[in-house]
């Protein structure tokens, strides 16, 4: 049974792996485990990594109720609160040294969104009012300093003067706005609204749903555009397979949390098209390709893309039960993950990326790093358990 398998994996594999990375001397969690499983205890500590760890352990506690998971969450929370939050200018830094000094003071909307996402879940788990107050402060920073009438701006210096968005731009372009940041602000606000039910957050979620439908989704290609100029004009022919299947289920989830029929009716046809397009275009060899940049397909298998594909196809099957091919795809990708993506070496977790033959790529990317975290694969497990589809 799929549910039993992922439950065993998250409890016996992912959770203990990350718990052992607690830095009990300097706070937080160690920032790097290389391909050869060497822990670099002096590596910088990414704030995105710590937010995702906080989210992961908070949700593990909410799902399984074990106090040690809440303690691991609290350990991440204390680090974010004490070392990552800018008490003078607001928002969170990009990274710290291993001892907690500010290393990169960039303020990024994407990064701050993940802090809200994590703090909201931690509040739900711990009932600590301080956590939701901190989430609210970061929310107001984003709304007052990081957006315009068109969308969310991206990168700023310490005092929120705009800087080049090199951290969330790839493929040879520098984007002033991105689908990725918009998606994760939406994801964060969905969780923030779920635990607070504040009307102002609801209105921002509705505004973002309109933006996805009217400006990000390309109805001719049945995909999302990825990189934009300041006016939300697409600047690159790029199809990000992982983001599209992730968006499909996150938007459906957001619409469910909102409970507004108008937006379900507006967005669900789009999320169905996104799911179908990814199934037809990117699903190969029981796994998902990475992306297509200006007609050239990147066939690497990235850890987070596989995890999001499992949830996305399960979500697609739930919305359209006659599409049994989606259910089969979700099960087949899980089998691919078990066989290829989960690192069988002792004291390891998932490989970062594999080549088209299911072998770790030659560059041997890290097992833990600023972006390599327990958020995607842990969430995949939680979602499968939560959805309780009997397969």
From TrEMBL:
Catalyzed reactions per annotation: D-cellobiose = beta-D-glucosyl-(1->4)-D-mannopyranose
Record carries keyword Isomerase: yes
EC number: 5.1.3.11
One GO term (biological process): carbohydrate metabolic process
InterPro entries: 6-hairpin_glycosidase_sf, 6hp_glycosidase-like_sf, AGE/CE, Cellobiose_2_epim
Lineage top rank: taxon: Bacteria
Top EC group: isomerase
Record's keyword terms, sorted: Isomerase
Gene3D superfamilies documented for this protein: 1.50.10.10
GO MF annotations in UniProt: cellobiose epimerase activity
Similarity field: Belongs to the N-acylglucosamine 2-epimerase family.
Role of this protein: Catalyzes the reversible epimerization of cellobiose to 4-O-beta-D-glucopyranosyl-D-mannose (Glc-Man).
Name of this protein: Cellobiose 2-epimerase
Organism, as annotated: Anaeromicropila populeti
